[in-house]
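Recap from last week: sequence in, structure out.
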Amino acid sequence: CIRSATPELRHITFDFAQQLEIPHHTRQVGPIYFKSRFKVQLFGICDEARNTQVNFLFHEGESIGRDGKNAHGPNAVVSMLHYYLENLADQEIMKMHADNC
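Predicted C-alpha cells:
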C-alpha cells in the first residue's frame, strides 16, 4: 500500500495474487514432502488511507463461478468488493483501482 489518499477521499486498490499452495515453507524438503498441497486463491483489497489490507482466501474449487470455475471472473470480484464496501468501508467517496482483475 502507498499513501495517496486523504481523509476526504478514500483510495483502495484490489487484485488477485498468484495461486498459493499451502502449507508453504521456504525450506521445504522437496516436492514429495506433501503429496498434494492445498491450492488457494488470494484476493486483496488495500485501503491506502488506513494503510491496511483485507485478504480473501478461498480454495480453488470453491470459486463463485459455476462448477468451481471462473475464480477470477467479474462475479467473484464484485462479490468480494461488495462485502468489503458493505461491511468494512466507512466512507462513501472512493477511488478504486484494479490491476487486471
